[in-house]
């Protein structure tokens, strides 16, 4: 399998092969070789449907039946390769040549690659395109960088201040408390405080404790399993109680959630019914949906347990076995290598659920969660000791 972006006769090409056939997309417009113009390029695939976007002009290859997962298991190369033997002949047109020009701000699956001396695994014959202390990300939020004898200075847009235009004017005098995040509200010339786990109040200055976590949207808890290194990952288990009045939401995501290589076990709601999704390493997510009856909007507590015995998955809802399925009878991958990370309710501020889960779940969870138990542990995990934001005391009332 491969995915390759290249410059061919002045046009940008995207070529990919998921194991059955090679798909080629090409931009409508040419790239001018004047060395002075920066272009914004977006390319990728969703399943076996590819897309290519150059400065806002989009080309999409309609999907056809076939493979849906890109399985490369190789290093990622930018601008060239260490050996032409690594290049699939179908990935390029004619003889492959290395790229000559400048590349910046590479984002793969919502993660930016750091094009520095120390971060990549290797490289050769790479120089600094900017050549000054300004670079391209020194001034934030569309600030303009100016080189000076002492270094640089940033000219900031009207609503941003700071040496690198990193701070909103609406948050410059904020009263947000311990570890809270200040979120500017330009429309009202004000701000709101997003409280760290264990704090509440308008300015996040009131200390709280709870055993029932209340998620209000744009909320999350990130729990790191201290016993992960001792777990038998071929036999995983998680159970919890939840209540909600919403039809959509991610309840829990066992996994690092960083890229498509990460294993995960996820529980959530889709169209008002329970949805469980497992990925043990094939980059092919297996959704298990129970549609017997709706479990949203009734304001009652529901008890869910998911048991993974190698590739056999059992799902219990309110102590009734509702799903029993072998997701891979070939037993190609049998362990849930989730990295010891469990997200509850959503992901870090700014990371959208529908993007991180590639559309498996649409929204953050709104509701309450309690009594979370991992594997066969004798104690419930202490959510209060985890990392999180915008989570409140759900012990009482609504």
Automatic annotation (TrEMBL):
The keyword Electron transport does not apply. Residues 1-129, 210-398 form the Laminin G domain. One of its GO terms (biological process) is developmental growth. Residues 130-166, 167-205 form the EGF-like domain. Keywords: Calcium, Disulfide bond, EGF-like domain, Glycoprotein, Repeat, Signal. It comes from the Eukaryota. The keyword Glycoprotein applies. CDD domains: EGF_CA, LamG. Disulfide bonds join 102-129, 156-165, 176-193, 195-204. PANTHER family: EYS PROTEIN, PIKACHURIN-LIKE PROTEIN. This is Protein eyes shut.
């Amino acid at each position: 399998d491969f995915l390759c972006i290249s410059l061919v006769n002045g046009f940008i090409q995207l070529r990919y092969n998921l194991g059955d056939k090679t798909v080629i997309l090409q931009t409508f417009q040419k790239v001018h070789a004047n060395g002075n113009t920066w272009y914004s390029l977006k390319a990728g695939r969703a399943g076996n449907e590819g897309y290519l976007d150059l400065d806002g002009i989009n080309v999409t290859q309609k999907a056809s039946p076939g493979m849906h997962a890109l399985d490369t298991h190789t290093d990622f190369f930018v601008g060239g390769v260490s050996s032409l033997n690594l290049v699939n002949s179908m990935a390029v047109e004619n003889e492959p040549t290395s790229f000559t020009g400048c590349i910046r701000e590479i984002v793969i699956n919502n993660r930016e690659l750091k094009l520095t001396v120390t971060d990549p695994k290797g490289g050769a014959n790479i120089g600094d395109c900017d050549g000054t202390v300004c670079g391209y990300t020194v001034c934030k939020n569309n600030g303009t960088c100016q080189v000076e004898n002492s270094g640089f200075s940033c000219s900031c847009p009207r609503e941003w201040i700071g040496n690198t235009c990193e701070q909103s004017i609406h948050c410059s005098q904020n009263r947000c408390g311990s570890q809270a995040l200040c979120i500017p509200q330009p429309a009202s010339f004000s701000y709101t405080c997003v409280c760290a786990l264990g704090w509440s109040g308008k300015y996040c200055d009131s200390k709280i404790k709870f055993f029932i976590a209340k998620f209000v949207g744009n909320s999350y808890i990130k729990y790191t399993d201290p016993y992960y290194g001792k777990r038998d990952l071929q036999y995983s288990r998680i159970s919890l109680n939840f209540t909600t009045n919403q039809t959509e939401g991610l309840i829990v995501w066992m996994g690092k959630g960083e890229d498509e290589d990460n294993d995960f076990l996820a529980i959530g709601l889709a169209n008002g019914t329970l949805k469980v999704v497992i990925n043990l390493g094939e980059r092919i997510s297996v959704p298990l949906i129970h549609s017997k009856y709706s479990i949203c909007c009734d304001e009652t507590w529901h008890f869910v347990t998911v048991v993974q015995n190698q590739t056999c998955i059992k799902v219990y809802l309110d102590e009734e076995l509702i799903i029993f399925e072998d997701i891979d009878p070939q037993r190609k991958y049998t362990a849930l290598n989730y990295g010891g990370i469990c997200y509850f309710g959503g992901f870090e501020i700014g990371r959208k659920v529908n993007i991180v889960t590639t559309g498996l779940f649409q929204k953050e969870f709104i509701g309450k969660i309690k009594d979370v138990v991992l594997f066969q542990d004798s104690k419930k995990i202490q959510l209060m000791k985890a990392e999180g934001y915008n989570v409140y005391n759900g012990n009482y009332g609504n």
